[in-house]
Amino acid sequence: MEPLKIYLRIKRENRVFFFECSLLDPVEILKRKLLPYYKQEIQDMRIYLGDRLLDDKANLQDQAVPNDSCLILKLRKGMSGEWDE
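RESULT FIELD:
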């Protein structure tokens, strides 16, 4: 049986990316899909569902990410250690 597929949007500033994912995918997979678009390492990306930071190693189902969610991508600003607003 194929794992349940969901559709997600990931937004940062004025860009929105659309992805088809499995509920069993860890958040790290989403970050890997974003690598071609940003010159950042995975550890320099954070993905949020609302105000909640998603764990890279946990899958989407365990973190209760619903279908058609709009997730927020935040990037680390240079070497300062600060993150996007």
